[in-house]
Structures are given as C-alpha cells and as structure tokens.
Amino acid sequence: MYADSYDDFEYRPASEYTSEERRRHCWAVAIGLQDVDGLKVSDYLRDQAHAYILGEKGLDEVGELVRERYAGADANGESKEADLVSQRIAELLTRGAFFLSPDMLTTIHAYLFQDLDPAVYHPG
Fold it and tell me: Is the pTM of this model over 0.85?
C-alpha cells in the first residue's frame, strides 16, 4: 500500500490492535497491585477501565479523565492514589515489555507516582 501523503492513512485507535482480553488483563494487574497494598480504586476508575477494555475509549483519554477528576486542590478522595497509579500501571503494561533492573525501578516509580504530591510520595 502506498500513500501520497501521511494524511492518506486511515486512523485507527490503538485499542483496535490489542485484544479485549489483553486490555482486561492489564487493568486486572493494575487494580490488583493496588489491592495488594490495601488500596481500593473508585467505581469511577472501574467504569473508565471498562470503557477502555471494550474499546470505547483510548487509554490516553482514560488517563486524562482520571487526572481531571483529581486535579482540584480539594480532590483528595480516598481512592486518589489507587486510581492515579492504577492508570499509570495500565499505561506501562500496554506499552509492552520493559527491562526490570535496579536503575529502572526508580524510573518506573517516578512514572507511576508522577501525578501525586512529590513531598509525600517522593517519586523516583
């Protein structure tokens, strides 16, 4: 297939390239890791994750919606950490394999906790 310009290619959301089972698995791991730490995600996050799993929303859109929900100064719900970190875990998992080494752990930690108060969570 040849195209005269970059605009000639049909846009398809990334969710079309991954199976529903894979998308479900990524969210199960993300939410499960929070559960192991005794943190519970909100019903709001579960609804957004479900929309992503079904291919109704992209992961970037879900991330924006979740971060918007907690953007206000007084948006400190009990599920804030679990929701924000779960979404970042799902992002990492959908990107494919990554190298797990001591140096990489600080990078992963910084990525996962970037949306939370750095004075409390010390990302990285």
Answer: no
